[in-house]
Amino acid sequence: MDTYTDHLKSLTDSVRLTRRGFAVTSLAAGFAAAVSPVAKATITTDAEGLDAGEIKIPVKDGTAPGYRARPAKGTHFPTVLVIQEVFGVHEHIRDLCRRLAKLGYYAIATELYARQGDVSKLTDINDIIKIVAQVPNEQVMSDLDASVAFAKSEGANTEKLGVTGFCWGGGKTWIYTAHNQKVKAGVAWYGPLVPRPGIGAGVSPVDVAGDIKGRVLGLYGGKDTGITEENRNQMLAALKGDGDTKSKIVVFPDAQHGFNADYRPSYNEAAAKDGWAQMLAWFKAHGVA
Q: How far apart are CA 80 and CA 107, in angstroms?
């Protein structure tokens, strides 16, 4: 194919992308509609001393919105990817980024459903799941790679790279750690471990256990009816079967799914605080500090 033809194809692809566009071009304010009303226990972290706000992240086929928080002074901060729960990058995820930034991290959360749809205004979880089921794993991995590149372009230290995710993002934390061998540590909060019918096919954490290599800490609730003891044992068996004796799954017996979500009834303060402390210790022990 000659140069002119290549150029013409590039222009055609560009027009096709422009016509298709992204379903989400900016983050919605506040919490996702599906979680209203917000609980009184909700934690609000201010941005004092931080450089925090919405960003535009160049991805493979366009630009995705995201949120970034880092200390206002200094540079070369260790990097933590924060992977959204099923409700997208709403206020809770942004607050978690600010909490990490207050501790000296560069924290970045990319809206990973940007092409498929805006879940922030949906009130029915079944409608949200329909959108989530359309999100290919390859797209998620590529967008997270782009998030790392964006962080590096802003002077973050991506050699000290950690990842943490919640709910849907907890499952992707296991998978992204396997995908990107430069991730030093992952912390997965109550993320699915095995294939789940109705929430899309494709890769699940149990499928990539051989590539995790002792880098992931999983935090789970003993009363989580969606992620059972059997699921956790399947994941542990897969890890050990591939010689991984360092990755861990910690179970909080009295906690439900979503126990770190302080804006929801599932919040368990004791488990959330313990899990947060274990996450920070895991990051430090693996060189993300």
A: 5
